[in-house]
Amino acid sequence: MTELGSTPGVFICASCAVWAARHVSRFPVVRLDPRLAARWLRRRIARTAGSASVAIPILYSVDLDRTAEHYRSLGLRVVEQEETYLVMQVGGAELHFTTSGEVASAPGQAFMHVYDAGELWKQLQERGVAGIGPVEDRPTGLREFTVTDPDGNRIRVGSPIPAD
């Protein structure tokens, strides 16, 4: 529990305090866990001139409307849709789909980092979303599950395993 500085006697949990600080500050707010600070610093150092900051997969779709509906059930929203191209987004992550012959009709794969893969998996299971595989803790230190869409594309969804 943390006492709010401007309102003595009012307390909130540490996670809520970090959330609130992140939403009112333009400066990075991290918990006092040295692993998180080191991870943030590595990401900042990696943003040098000429380095890539985002890779966006372009996956094949037989039916863009069906694909859009499937990924809406996962929480993504349509950003742009044309006759042969679809862009969907959740947070800062995007997935692109095409019906064009430029992309092989073989299913594709992508990996999407999320804040808490275990919690997202539970939410998707509760909603009965189709194509959700089991959630597993990997030796790589990630908690992951796989989403398979109607065209066979596989999206691996993962987050660091929480230190409990």
Write up what this structure looks like.
The protein is of the alpha+beta class and 164 residues long. The protein folds into two domains: 45 residues, no CATH class; 103 residues, 2,3-Dihydroxybiphenyl 1,2-Dioxygenase, domain 1. It is built from four helices and ten strands, in the order E-E-H-H-E-H-E-E-E-E-H-E-E-E. The strands form three sheets. A four-stranded mixed beta sheet has the order 3-6-5-4, covered by helices on one side. Strands 7-10-9-8 form a four-stranded mixed beta sheet, covered by helices on one side. The protein has a two-stranded antiparallel ribbon with strand order 1-2. A hairpin with a 4-residue loop joins strand 8 and strand 9. The longest helix is centred in the N-terminal third of the chain and has 13 residues. It is elongated and about 60 Å long. About 3% of the residues have low confidence.
Structure at a glance:
The chain has 164 residues and is an alpha+beta fold. The protein contains four helices and ten strands. The radius of gyration is 19 Å and the shape is elongated.
